[in-house]
Amino acid sequence: MTEKETDPKAEKLTAVKGMNDILPPDSARWEWLEDKVRTLMGRYAYRNIRTPIVEPTALFVRGTGETTDIVEKEMYSFEDKLNGEALTLRPENTPGVVRAAIQHNLTYDGGKRLYYMGPMFRHERPQRGRYRQFYQLGAEALGFAGPEVDAELMLLVHELFGAFGLRNVRVELNSLGVAAERRAHRGALIAYFEQQRELLDADSQRRLHMNPLRILDTKNPAMQSLVQGAPQLLDYLGDESLQHFDTVKTLLSACGVQWRVNPRLVRGLDYYSHTVFEFVTDELGAQGTLCGGGRYDGLFALLGGKPTPAVGWGMGLERVLELIQQQGDIPAAPAPDAYAVIPDAAALPRAMQAMQALRSAGVSVQMHASLSAGADSMKSQFKKADASGAAYALIFGGDELAENAVTVKALREGGAAQRRQSLGDVALWASTLQSRT
Ligand code: ATP
Ligand code: MG
């Protein structure tokens, strides 16, 4: 068998179900979004943190919480074949960030504002807006106790969505108070659900005595009316918690963020306290939560660190990109400024030097390269030039080579204009090729 034949025995491999390839030109939309994220994070003075994708399983069992959907049924966990360590592909990144902060004593000299972007893994049923590998952007402010940071983090999401051009996204808020308040509410909640035990689904029966608050987070439509009538945690909050919550609301309003209190918002994870929030849209069907977060003052201690107040959020980027696309604000697919047509292989060394000079001067140039060895016809090269979306074709032909020059031909808007430029002074005319920013 030669290199040019397909092996009849080689089975074609495909990506794991629920894990997607992101291909050009779609990947350009991701880069566009990531650029906007980096710019805005810089303006808010949030700094990038990159933690491992694999962490000890215990980090999520303790951090995310034993009775959460994530830990109960969604984690990709495995044993390290070499040393038997229990490991997990991160299903979320807050525990990883806090682990790193404790390990490196990040908050020794004051609070830290951090953000991350990267893949997360959850073994869920794949469907629209729900994948097994998906990308989250997250921001975490570590070591700040005041409500102004809760508000700052929500304002950051609001501004990001503005930069993405998103419309019709609602902000829902609630407060989970502090542990003693949640304990008092817990008793009332258990009593309420016990009275109507036959209406609880299997998950909720199991959670009733382990973590009844989580029942409020159920997605089971059959339980919604039961949950609607449950005692509200807000009624159990003391003055300090109410004050914290009020300040968050006042600051958001002062900054032009419209919010709505949702007393049943508890969020799916165990570590939250005080402010919790979600950014929600009605335009993506059932998977309408774009971003969720809250304060988690207890997580550092839970993971063996010094008690440290903290607050943060995570955003699902597939859902955000789908909404951007659905609302019609699709960034233009990228195209090079110029396409190099090379009808004569003898011109290659000079042509490649000239392209390097143009690229150094800020021009993007795509070089024609043939699928099979040997130069393609001018006609087929021009076809490719056109398809590339380039504004100009650069023709490195024999005549041009003799004159140490290149022919520059406009491909758009009439397309007739053609001129010859000397390769000796590329830097002087390079800027005339830059059609885009
Ligand atoms: P959901 O209620 O949709 O299951 P969640 O509460 O499990 O979300 P979080 O753990 O708060 O989600 O994660 C933050 C964000 O990450 C979600 O709001 C969502 O946008 C996104 N997200 C969560 N799970 C997935 C997934 N399997 N595929 C794509 N995006 C996801
Ligand atoms: Mg979930």
Give an account of the 3D structure.
The chain has 437 residues and is of the alpha+beta class. The chain has two domains: 26-177 and 237-326, BirA Bifunctional Protein, domain 2 (2-Layer Sandwich), CATH 3.30.930; 338-435, Anticodon-binding domain (Rossmann fold, 3-Layer(aba) Sandwich). The chain contains 15 helices and 16 strands. It has an eight-stranded mixed β-sheet, sandwiched between helices. A hairpin with a 7-residue loop joins strand 15 (405-410) and strand 16 (418-422). Helix 1 runs antiparallel to helix 5. The protein starts with 25 loop residues before the first helix and ends in an 8-residue tail after the last helix. The model has no long low-confidence stretch (mean pLDDT 93). Residues 69, 268 line the site of magnesium ion.
What's the short version?
The protein is of the alpha+beta class and 437 residues long.
